[in-house]
Amino acid sequence: MKLMHLSDLHIGKKIYAFSMLPDQEYILKQIVQIAKEQKVEGVIIAGDIYDKPVPPAEAVSLYDWFLTALAQLSIPVFAISGNHDSAERTAFAAGLLKSRGIYMSPVFSGDIQPVRLKDAYGELFVYLLPFIKPVHIKKEYEQTDFDSYTAAFSFLMQQWKIDCTKRNILVAHQFITGAKKCDSEELSIGGLDQIDADVFKDFDYVALGHLHSPQNIGGSTMRYCGTPLKYSFSEWRHQKSVTIVELQDKGNLTVDTIPLDPMRDMREIKGPFAKITSLDNICKTDDYIKVILTDENDIIDAAAKLKAIYPNLMCLEYQNSRTAANASFTAVADLRQKSNFELFSAFFEQQNNMPLSQPQTAYIKEKMETVWGEDAQ
Fold this sequence. Notes:
Elements: E1 2-6, E2 14-15, E3 18-19, H1 21-38, E4 43-46, H2 57-72, E5 77-80, H3 87-90, H4 94-98, E6 102-104, E7 115-119, E8 122-128, H5 134-141, H6 149-159, E9 167-173, E10 175-176, E11 194-195, E12 205-209, E13 215-216, E14 222-224, E15 241-247, E16 253-259, E17 266-271, H7 273-276, E18 288-293, H8 302-309, E19 313-318, H9 321-332, H10 340-352, H11 358-372
């Protein structure tokens, strides 16, 4: 059974106010072509189909086109909802789509009935586990609180009747201990959402989503395929790809990758303004660019001047003795000196690339005052 493993499409995503929809349409068309050329027998989408629980209409239309294109090639799809998705919206029309070979994860209700496939080596079962937290497991099984994600998911695996003599695939959107993170991912503070890899030892292959960097966890049977596009400048050196996994008889599988060629790359350029703007150093101009200026003095209208050369300039920063001193001061500052609202504001801006709006500020302050009173400020 030859399968393509995708995840974290984040259709509809914006980066620094730049819509990624044209880039996503371009890369999804490329992925369909690869699936056709590779003659894959199924496509796995391991969560975060959309970037928001309520995606824009254009994002829904693009995903509809993608599923239709795969269905027209008679390629089954196995998709789950991620933490960015609405599980209910993702599961909409699942029964109808199943008749066309599109298998969508249902809203979690405890037991999961796997999709049964068959090839020359016998039966193969695909378990579609949407993104969940221990509280969801507790609710469905009426258990007491679990002391960790590992404990909760270990309990869940014990409830499933997995036939270990057969080949089994798990599609999941979780954070496995030991994996490497990127700036564009949303994970809980302190790694509380980590799950030990051994929890999923009964599966022949675990197709993971959630982390944006392609990587194996403890061997080739558990893998994050990564995003099809770069979604933060922490990823600018990544080579994005699709993962091709081929399962033969029990215990025998191969994992390979096929690189993707984006419509626009994401680059980081660092140096003094004069060097960056010289003709000898200008790179491909339609790429998404982050410029780090090392000049000691601020350049007047630097962003406007740079956009004349790099129209898709996303971010401009300075890195010099002044910013180094500020960074050093910030690093040693005691976080306890910051108010709860200041901490939340900084976190919101880091996650969304924009500050809180006035209505959002008023709403958050009201809620914090309800919970913490004067300590909120």
